[in-house]
Amino acid sequence: MDDLERLAGAIRRADTAVAVTGAGLSAPSGVPTFRGDDGIWDRFDERQFTSDRFRRDPAGFWTDRVALHRAMFDEEYEPNAGHEALAAMGWDGNLEAILTQNTDGLHGDAAGAGGERTNDGEPDVAAETETTVLELHGNSRWVRCTDCGNRRDGDPIVERAAAGELPPTCECGGVFRPDVVLFGDRLPDAVLQRARSLARESDVFLAIGSSLVVEPAASLPRLAASTGATVAIVNLEPTPCDGIAETVLREDVTAVLPRLRDLTTA
Ligand code: APR
């Protein structure tokens, strides 16, 4: 029996399997990762995208945000075989929750799942699948007014900023901000607590396509392991959690996850 078959067996036996995902899952869809070869943070200075800078200099923040948004989301991305496999595992009843760091919304597209909002705690779309999709860092497809809380489709607002409305403002006079967790923001307590309780409850915890260097994702595998979960990591490069994982698969998500899903239904 190889590693993948052993992992599939553990998932089949599990009451609760949970996955945390990162940019490596969306990379095959064309969405750039943040670290590694030609990562976003090699091209942009992450210090320009902090919540402190947004407060101090919203016009300058939005000038840089337009370039970042276009670098990340300038084409229509589609879910890839990795997203589809995780969605299918949800439909199979083999995946309780996906805790994603990604803000591209592709898990929601793949599973038709409700992305539970980081910012207002309400499901983004009616969840149509067994799997909870928790968007830990929000969703870049949306912006939100800092005064009235109004949430809008982000693209037209980004285009208004690109055309010189800096910062883009709401009818109420408030300033729009991306509906994502910026560096320096705290994650809403409800989301953080939900993610941590899912990690604690899990019998199997998968970390997929993440360098596992940014909190809270970085600590979730350890939290899961501390309450007895079997941890498995699928990532092309080493992560700080490799040492606590029973299984480490240095393979492409689009190769591994469909095989894993098939084995969990065999
Ligand atoms: N298959 C498997 N792993 C892959 C693939 C692939 N096709 N492509 C890339 N990877 C791996 C890379 O080796 C890398 O270790 O995915 C990982 C992506 O790591 P990061 O780019 O650091 O992305 P992530 O872990 O999601 O970053 C976390 O940092 O900047 C913040 O808010 C941002 O959510 C992001 C957070």
TrEMBL record:
One Pfam family recorded for the sequence: SIR2
Residues the entry annotates as binding Zn(2+): C145, C148, C170, C172
GO MF annotation list: histone deacetylase activity, NAD-dependent; metal ion binding; NAD+ binding
Active site: H137 (proton acceptor)
UniProt entry tagged with the keyword Transferase: yes
PROSITE patterns with a match to the protein in the record: SIRTUIN
Name used for this protein in its record: NAD-dependent protein deacetylase
Highest classification ranks of the organism: Archaea, Methanobacteriati, Methanobacteriota, Stenosarchaea group, Halobacteria
